[in-house]
Amino acid sequence: MYNYIKIEQKEAVTVLTISAPKSLNALNSTVLQELGDAVSSLAPETRALIITGDGEKSFVAGADISEMANLNVSQGQTFGNRGAMVFRKIETLPIPVIAAVNGFALGGGCELAMACDIRICSENAKFGQPEVGLGIIPGFSGTVRLARLVGMGMAKQLIFTGKAIKANEALRIGLVNEVVPQAELMDKAMEIANQIAVNAPLAVSAAKQCINAEYDMYVDDAILYENGIFGQCFGTQDQKNGMKAFLNKEKVAFEGK
Ligand code: CO8
After folding, report:
1. Protein residue whose Cα sits closest to atom 35 of ligand 1
2. Are 202 and 233 in contact (CB under 8 A)?
3. Within 13 Å, how many C-alpha atoms sit on residue 96's CB side?
4. Residue 104 Cβ < 6 Å to ligand 1
5. 63: CA distance to ligand 1 center in Å?
6. Which residues of the chain have a pLDDT value below 70?
7. Is 111 a catalytic residue?
């Protein structure tokens, strides 16, 4: 169905693999289009999405440099916007998204990982924003998200120098949550996804919506926003079933209602 995207459904978890091996999974327009289509048509039973790259060398080696080389100003903006919109779609999906970073996450690859909710990586992973060495800036929202994740000073150093960092440094600065051996990467991603998938889906989704929306709000507005969504949880069957099961010392299978 797709040329560059592989989809595997493992019960409530979808694994999406970007596969453009000739260019280390670089993002050309078609890959971006397919990525956007794939995340828009996930199976309805999906409660967590894992995004990874094909092979053991690269997650995504960036936007496709051969496609960008001859763009003019407006074409550059169009290309940047295409990636930015797909990544925003991922960031605002109603389910959690885990990036399982299996190698190079450079430029658009690092930006894709940052649009995911949770990042784990293999020991051989490398992260960086090398764009200024190509005469451009991060254009898939890297200047927006990197500072929010690792702080302004570290983000500026990474973007101004263009230097890549290893997995353990990414862990130290908070760019990834966990580093594991390559052979354990997908098991670890599945473990986290399954821990999410057993919880009440509407509540998980509401929590994601709150964390995303409240991050940039004035604290009193954020507290009010959370309160509104918290109250709505009590209108769900999952809340009734979850609390009843706890009080009766039973297990609950949430229905997402
Ligand atoms: N685009 C296109 N092709 C690529 C890319 C890429 N980003 N990365 C690797 N490739 C290709 C190589 O050209 C090579 O192709 P070929 O075999 O035909 O020569 C193949 O993949 C294998 O790559 P290497 O031989 O270079 O493999 P190495 O192991 O020697 O090096 C590296 C691996 C370090 C990852 C190296 O390939 C590299 O530096 N790649 C480029 C990394 C980079 O600069 N990424 C950022 C790109 S810019 C970007 O992402 C901006 C995002 C925002 C865009 C906004 C638009 C306006």
Report:
1. 61
2. yes
3. 28
4. yes
5. 8
6. none
7. yes
